Amino acid sequence: MMHLKNGDPEPSINPARYTLFAYGFCPFCERVRLTLSFHKIDYDLILVSLLIKPDWLVKYSPMGKVPLLIHHGEKLLESDLIMRFIDELHGEKTSLMTVCGIENFQKAAELAKKFFGPGHSILYETDLNESDVVQFYEACSELENSLKSKYFTGDQLSLADLVLFPLIDYFEVILSVIHNIELDHVHELKMSDALNEANKWPNLVNYLTTMRQESFVVNIRKSTRIKAKYASSKRAGCPNPEIQ
Predict the structure, then answer these.
(1) Which of 4, 108, 110, 231 could be stapled to 160 by a disulfide with Cβ–Cβ 3.0 to 4.6 Å?
(2) Would you give the DSSP letter of residue 92?
(3) In this protein, which residues make up the domain named GST C-terminal (predicted)?
């Protein structure tokens, strides 16, 4: 599916269906897509370019932001709010929030922010800032101390995992920029890898491996190699969301 850009015709929207406006390499959009995928909620996906935004996008999102979920004319922005809305659709019995509670959900969101703040700068800025690297490593260490079970709050998947994982899934891509690793050598780390990072943060590496194997994640997630290619194209000034 291609990203719609300025000049492309406005897509038709079925008000009776859930419609998600998203960007293919936005981890905040991925949060929402994973929540929809886990709950097996059918929806229409509209990918939009954030570099050359369609002029009709402001009709739905005045600030031109995604993710945006629309249903029966109602609009929801902000990934965490959309996630919570989706998670409540089928009641408490299937709710992932009931597993972790709001406090752990917010804690996971804060850890994701600490990780992706400096991580975003490392990924996409042309010059590597040493202070960003220090903050990134500190965030990795904090995650290592927080991820002591299979999932964020224990042995059961929760909404905290879905708010955390999409942002920290850029772990190896960020490391590849720090260490100036060639694109062809960027891959998902496993504990069998003889790399310092795998040994330094084993809980983090194991957690990423666990989440990447979840069936509802496999259908949505882009590989680490593809993420690295996109980050490289963006650093070069030509972000290509259609990259394969």
Answers:
(1) 108
(2) G
(3) 72-230
Ranges for all domains in the chain classified under CATH 1.20.1050.10: 99-236
Cβ contact 79:22 at 8 Å: no
User: How far apart are alpha carbons 178 and 122 in whole angstroms?
Assistant: 7
How many CB atoms neighbour CB 25 within 10 A?
A: 21
The domain defined by 99-236 carries CATH number 1.10.8.100: no
CA-to-CA distance for 102 and 146, rounded, in angstroms? 16
d(CA 152, CA 208): 11
pLDDT tens digit string along 176-222? 999 999 988 898 887 666 556 778 899 999 999 999 999 999 999 99
What's the pTM value of the predicted model, to 2 decimals? 0.96
- Cα radius of gyration rounded to whole Å, the chain: 18
Query: What distance in Å separates the CA atoms of residue 158 and residue 137, rounded to the nearest whole number?
Result: 25
Q: What's the CATH fold of domain 18-92?
A: Glutaredoxin (3.40.30)
Calpha distance 7→125 (Å, rounded): 29
Phi-psi label, residue 232: left if phi above 0, alpha if psi -120 to 50, beta otherwise: alpha
Identify which of 191, 148, 147, 197 has the alpha carbon closest to the alpha carbon of residue 172. Answer: 197
Residue span(s) of the chain under CATH 3.40.30.10 come to: 18-92
For residue 188, how many other CB atoms are within 10 A of its CB?
Answer: 15
